[in-house]
Structure prediction request, 54 residues.
Amino acid sequence: MVKAINELLANKEPFLQALQKKITTVFNEENDNAIDDIDSKLEELQQQFLQAKS
Prediction:
């Protein structure tokens, strides 16, 4: 375990780049999901509005 940590610290730049890429991917996926949720809610509200207007 200590050897693995030491190797990681010795080569931290590639690890940090990979970590940053993964974090960015997660945030982008969460943003995409949030946008999809908002779009769905807007569609639902629009349908309710059109039904109430009829």
Q: What stands out?
A: The chain has a mean pLDDT of 87.
